[in-house]
Specification:
Outer membrane efflux proteins (OEP), elongated, 455 residues, 12 helices, four-stranded antiparallel β-sheet, alpha+beta, 64% helix, two-stranded antiparallel sheet, single chain
Length: 455
Amino acid sequence: MLRHHPYLGLLSCLVFSGCMQYHAAPLAVAPHYASLTPNSTALQNFPTLKAHPFNPDDGLDVVEIEMLAVSQNPALQLARSDLGVSQAQAYAAGLLPDPQLSLASDISHASGVGAASSYGLNYDFGALLAHSSAKHEAEYAHHQAELNLLWQEWQVIGQAQLLMVRAQMQAKIMQTLQRQQQFAADRAARSYQAMQQGNVTRDIANSDVVALQAINSKIDDLKTLQLATRHDINDLLGISPNSMLNLQFESHKKASSPRRVDPSLIRVALDHLAERRPDLQALQAGYASQDAKFHRAILAQFPALNVGLTRNKDNAGLVSNSLGITLTLPIFNHNQGNVAIEQATRQRMHDEYQIRLNQTHASVLRLQSEQQQQFAVWQSRRAKLTQLRHDVDQTSVVYHQGLVDDLIWVNLNNNEFSQELDLLNIEQAIREQSVGLNILLGLPVSQSQNEETVQ
């Protein structure tokens, strides 16, 4: 019986000594949100962010929001877990295949007759032959997972920048609407007083009230959008939905004009796009992994070879040694089906990479042309608004002297507010386009080095 083998106990110790022990990992029963503490390990791919001082006491600027987003975004946490799985798969692929040990013993009840037994050692040389290709395949796949994570981090940073631009512009639009609200409220109050004195009709007073209500409605709608933006930022950071962050935006001097990505930088970045964009690099690594898989399928065309040594002892105590060889005959299958599948898959990944590269070039050029068009509109309307503000200032003097009709004064101010709001909406579009171009081109995180102010 098996207990007659003296090395069985030692073999059991060797087999089980390297095994992991099981530890339970119970699931949570309540929500758990992240705190406002960036993780320096998660920022290792972004030295600019890692070097930036983090102080939430004086408010969170755009860089600090980016630090928190990269550190604790829920989607990135899952991506990092997937990277751990990929790393484990690469480790497993690097291990050599184990040999197989077989032990057997007859159970005999006849007196005076010994029990026959045998033990042998087998090894699959086919798996050993494909080990190098399988290892390279897993290593490239792991590198692809690392680059995909980096691309997700880039996109999260872009989303953080986009939300901060949106929050900043919403705050500027709110300031303009509140000034317009104050002007309309004063106008409505004067109209009501004039109606009470019989100086204006009820229709005029009612029209001023309707105008005030329209502005109030715009402010209410904007407050809803601001609340949604705040929730989007909280979701991006993985913090409680009820958190009220103190966001710090650019100073008025820096934010006075929208900024754009330098056209010369766009040209250089496009020439080196495949070296900059993490997702394109990930596709390159994925293609290399598939190429190694295709090579492994070709190697599998060769006959599988399994060699084993066996030592036998019969009931009479005679001992014999035998050599066993198992060889697959490549007559019908020849692994041609798997070779065709892996070759077609490699071709698809080749096409996917080329399409992604083409689409990125097209998206950059399209967004750049749209931004240039928006700049032309913005500059033209800013010049008109500057002239209109000059007219309002000039008219203000004579209006308060009673030399200008009241309706002309109201229309002039409303026109100024309307053009200012229109200009702010165009500015928001330009700033969001700059963020989009930075991400499409795989440019550094810091925008201040990659944008130019419109003069």
